[in-house]
Design goal:
about 130 residues; rod-shaped; mainly alpha
Amino acid sequence: MDKEDARTQTRGELFTRRKEVIRLHKKGYAVMQLVELTGLSWSAVRVALDLHEEGGLAALKPDARGKKLGSGRSLSTEQEQALQKIICDKRPEQLKMDFFLWSRPAVKELIERECGITLSVRSVGQYLER
């Protein structure tokens, strides 16, 4: 059986596979036999066994993957809220800007003015979308 990379599985599939590893291990199968039977790599089997030893069945549940929500943003929450208030309360011309409506370039200039941070037009669009 070919080895299956555990990183490509969904969290539910990985949890099910880890439980299967534990069930077979309790029946007396060795680690290399588990690798052959489950199709997981040696490291994935070993991780499942180690997690179960440390925290039981609950520890087998995989953690969320990827970046944490909100990580990598240039503006803080307070800065975002302050800019939203300005955009809702005033027009660009009231702030002596060369724009008539709030557009991505106008908001980009406002961010540079208020926060001293230069963002790409695309990043500004993502902030506006949120």
